[in-house]
Every structure is written in structure tokens, then in C-alpha cells.
Write the C-alpha cells for this entry.
Amino acid sequence: MSEGIPNLAGQGARYLQRQLMALRSGTRKHELMSVVAAGLAASDVEPLARYFSQQPAQGASAPRSPLLPVFERSRARLP
């Protein structure tokens, strides 16, 4: 987990759908997620929300991806 990257796992599917649609439309803003959501087709939102809602929720003590520190140090940006 990273402070700047929201944890979507275990959130309600309807909640995630509403948030992703708001991010896509620009009515909700988040530096990273707005960019990611803008690239989604409307037909991708429901299956994506369902997928993340079915993942086990992870707390702050969950193991971090070994690639996350590399990404954080890099100058890479998502489109």
C-alpha cells in the first residue's frame, strides 16, 4: 500500500462504480485515479468495480508489492 494510491480491494461494488464514474467525468478529482479512470470505457467500469469488490480487503499492515518502491522512485507516470 502507498499513501498516494487508494486501496480498492473489498470496497462495495456500487460504491466503486459511482466513484469511478465520477472520476471519469471529472466531478471527482484525484491526481492518479482521475487519469486511470479517464482511460476506462463506460463498459469497463462495472466489471472492474465488481472485481475489486471481490478482492480481500487489506489493511495498512498488508505486504507491499516489491515493485511499488521502484515505481515510487521512478519518474514513470501513468498515461
